[in-house]
TrEMBL record:
GO biological process: D-xylose metabolic process
Keyword Cell inner membrane: no
UniProt keyword list: Carbohydrate metabolism, Xylose metabolism
Protein name: Xylose repressor XylR (ROK family)
Keyword Transmembrane helix included in the entry's annotation: no
Length: 376
């Protein structure tokens, strides 16, 4: 147990620092040099590390450098949305090595059908790259609903009209361990782990796509709540007795502030089913009516974010998902609205940014799940 913990500590340290001498590792982790030597030779045997020459001596023998090998293992990420499935293969630096997308078709409505297709594509990717199966850590799934990752159950997916899908039943389709997580939680992990070097311990990720999902990181880990559904901010009431939601409630935030909500408002106002969001957004640069719709949308988005700040007081809020395509049109107004007219907080109290992972946060978060298991 202690050996395993020490090995994970050494792996984490080298993962962040790329290469260090054995002396430096001992100092930084506060463990003895013989412990570093025996554990790092075990990690070299397993292929995670390699020796990379010697550093200048500071007196006595020249210290040996050990180096992390990012291609020592690989991970699969799968992101399931209402429209399509994305599958990626990454190395340990989260470089995307291969990607396959397929569209959801309505007949594919047994979840098992999706799994069968995913397993076929994963086999294709492995054959393409001739990666040895023992180098693959596992397959992480980013899912659009509440997830119990220990019981491996996708509990509630209002937008698919599905409940209680048990991933343990799908194990036989794959030769690697499976991991599942809610897509907003996975995105929050990705933001915290890939962009912030784990130093940002308090973060809310707001994913704006078809709906709105949020992932909450407190003290460096996801806050899930007693029934694993914390952070369902997309379904907090923003208009009492408002529009009817798939979840059974009325006036949920995502019906006013998601990408789909914005598009629906445009279609309704202009009685035009054929234009897409880009067309309408282009119009909003010159047309007053289109502009007003965008402003109302930004108002609703800001109201929800203000509530989140008041409830959680997070150090960081990261906005991601498909909102990226119209970020430039809303960013300035949104920030002003979030910070206006309140006596509780000012701009320096909460850093709000748009995700630099763009539309990749959820899928990289999926690929991160098996890697987290390896490092923590
Ligand atoms: Zn709802």
């Amino acid at each position: 147990m202690i050996r395993l913990l020490n090995q994970k500590k050494i792996l984490r340290l080298l993962y962040r620092n790329n290469q260090l001498t054995k002396q430096e590792i001992a100092q930084m982790l506060n463990i003895s040099i013989p412990t570093v030597i025996s554990n790092s030779s075990e990690l070299i045997k397993q292929g995670f590390l390699e020796e990379a020459g010697v550093a200048e001596s500071t007196g006595g023998r020249k210290p040996t450098i050990v180096k992390f090998i990012p291609t020592s293992r690989y991970s699969f990420g799968v992101w399931v949305t209402r429209e399509k499935i994305r599958i990626i293969l990454t190395d340990l630096n989260f470089k995307i090595i291969d990607e396959i997308n397929f569209n959801m078709i309505d007949q594919l409505y047994d979840f098992r059908d999706i799994i069968v297709k995913v397993s076929k594509y994963i086999r294709d990717i492995i054959n393409n790259f001739s990666i040895s199966p023992n180098k693959i850590l596992g397959i992480g799934f980013s899912l659009p609903g509440t997830v119990d990752e220990y019981k491996m159950i996708l509990k509630n997916v209002p937008n698919f009209g599905m409940k209680n899908i048990c991933f343990n039943e799908f194990k036989d389709y794959f030769e690697f361990p499976l991991y599942i997580e809610n897509e907003a939680n996975a995105s929050a992990y990705a933001e915290a782990f890939l962009n912030f070097n784990d130093t940002k311990s308090s973060l809310v990720f707001i994913s704006i796509t078809e709906g709105i999902g949020t992932g909450i990181i407190v003290d460096g880990d996801i806050y899930k709540g007693f029934n694993k559904r914390a952070g369902e901010f997309g379904h907090m009431t923003i208009v009492k007795n408002g529009r009817k939601c798939n979840c059974g409630k009325k006036g949920c935030w995502e019906l006013y502030a998601s990408k789909k909500a914005l598009l629906n408002q445009y279609k309704k106002a202009f009685d035009d089913e054929n234009k897409n969001l880009d067309d309408f957004l282009e119009m909003s640069k010159v047309d007053k009516k289109a502009q007003n719709i965008l402003n109302t949308y930004i108002d609703f988005l800001a109201e929800g974010i203000k509530n989140i700040i008041l409830i959680l007081d997070p150090q960081n809020i990261v906005i991601g998902g498909e909102i990226f395509s119209y970020r430039d049109l809303i960013e300035k107004k949104l920030m002003n609205k979030i910070f206006e007219n309140n006596s509780f907080y000012e701009r320096k109290d909460c850093t709000i940014t748009f995700s630099s992972l763009k539309e990749n946060a959820a899928i990289l978060g999926a690929a991160l799940l098996p890697v987290k298991e390896m490092l923590f």
